[in-house]
Predict the structure.
Amino acid sequence: MNHSTLEAAALALKALLRRRDTRLALLALALPLSILAALTATANHLAAEAEALAALAERGEAHYLAHSETGLQAKLGPGIAETIRGVEGVEHPVALRVVEAEARLGNRAARVRIVGADSLENLLRLRKARIVEGEKPAEPGEALAGALLAEELGLKPGDTLEIAARRSKTTLRITGIVSSHTPLDSSLTTTMETAEQLAGPGLSAVEFKATPEAAGRVEELLPPGIVVERLGDPWSFAAGAEKQLLGLVEWWALTVYAVVAASSYVVAARLAAEAGREAGLLRTLGAGRPLVLATVVVYIGVLALGAGVLGTAMGLAGSQTASTLLWWAGAGRPLAPFLEPLDAARILALSVAAAAAGSLYPAYRLSGETL
Amino acid sequence: MTGLTRYMYLDRRRLAVLLAVVVAASTLAGVTGILLLGARRGVEAFAAPTRGVAVVYDTSSRTPFTGLLPLSLAQSLAGVEGVETVSPEVLAPCLVRGEPVFLRGVVPENFSETVELRIVGGRSLSGNPYEALAGARAAERLGVGVGDRILAVGVLKPVYAELVIVGVYETGTPLDDEILVHLETAQWFRTSSYSQVTLLRVKTEKPLPLGQEPGGGDGRVSDLAATVSRLARYLESLAGKTGKAGAATPKGFAERYVEDLGLGRETLYLLTLVVLLFSAAGIAVAVDTVVVLHREEIGVLRTLGASRRTVKADMALKLAPWVTCASLLGVLLAVALVGAAGQQLLLLSHRIPPLPDPLLAASTAAAVLLVVVAALARLRLPEGGEAG
């Protein structure tokens, strides 16, 4: 391949770009990309709004739970509770041991969860629980009955339950009834000593209140395999829902690129029909088949790149205009859609790739033309 | 019919350029329509749509899962003549293994009478509040099975509960994306008291008798709409004691919320067509290319005296069946794509179903045909003698 052949190919490319139908082809590729850009920009705005609201909500103190990644059945290692207590900003920490057992009162029985806490006061405070009858347990072997459990088994302060857990049996004297509108209402709440007597030493979880910064410090200090989860955090749910929405947009984007590929196929097929002589001339001038193929594919690629830029600009402007008009009409609120540089780069790259793929077959046919 | 009908001058291989774009554009419109309509149907999921079951809900709520009604209303409604079952339910969003999922708190005996639920693994709920039944799709998404334990973390309230999956169920509806628990279990995550629920579903064995107001009358009626109307009047008669309770069919329940968002059915079809029209330039280029590829044949026809209008009309007639079939194929491909995407297409943790919509397919095909005809109409055809 000599210099003049390359020059001829470059001239051919210029001629292709000056074709009459290049503008319509550009529009055909740009329009579907503009919707993709508009949708991506709007989704970005909604995500940014949600993050901003989440950041506002995160400033205050919140309720956290430290537990094993695998759940409450796995025991936390020794010293975890002390580690958490030692962090400045952590309030009302309570170590918990959850045991499953069968409880029997006379001829009534039920499967129950027994929650052992190293600080009943902190647990009741965290759960905003009220003792509606009786009093807190003062010693091992005593427990509070949750209001729902008490109703189911007909429990009252002074009753003694026979408890059979996997490893041992004991009796628990009910000292009071507690109501919290949490799972404590279906549990027996007792001291850590009682829970460990039933199930052996070890912690199931640690609950505490803290600021996000303090919770972050806790997480850094804990060994791998233990997670710190924020309770009552609607933004985590919103973030998950938003991820699902973005997944929808990504799937939808695949079909946009299919339209780009199909449109590129059409443009290249038209070239194959109309530019046979020009391609033959190039071959006569010494251009090999690969160079002719490359010239056509580069033409399509340049078209797709231009369409990507045009489509992105149209999409951004269009989404802003549409949201403004909807807001004026009272059907929405003002939005500020935007694209990250990575979003724009991805749209450009994928549209060029889709266009190149769509044009390959007609370009290959055209490259075989001779005079 | 034109005078050129008997002349088969369109080469099927050369039509591939047009058909490829039509299929791609129709697939894009189809996917758009299925996702939008599927999202709308997803809102119906909160009402657990079942034949013959009406929904009683909090009319002041802004979303389907944030309303609150008094549980005592279930007893009042159960006493209404013709009402067979009332299923009080609480919908509680939560996180399980970091994934958003909805817990639906139910009274198992009442719920199973209002929904055709098949246990495909394990067993149904017993009286233990720490048990859960996972919908088949929820189980797959979360990677759980019978016997597994999940830690459900509240998002509206600072609560958590370790639940044991005792069974997996299928209903063939969006319910399969949820986790069923006892009513009080879901109430821990959502309400501030055990006397509140999100909604009530009311099943009547026979339609409520016409003119028979709850408490008396006779006559015959009809259908779920009439049942809803009777329930609505009954609820009005309790005004002040029930808060703002209203009755609706599951579709009506969903429509109320999606209309508030400006996502009425007509708007969604319109949005789909707008997306299709954005591909119109590509279709126009393809039509132009088909004409270029057939310039010799068209040139011959023009030489033989056929007018431009006649040739264009004949081409439109000959292309119509191909374009229509290609468009319908595109919509079918869209259904297949959405189906293949499976659990990756979720909205508010409910899978978007790949349901083919005949109106969507018909409107897409009609719109594509219109674009093709419009593109043909504006084209300049080769003259006789320009061929070759």
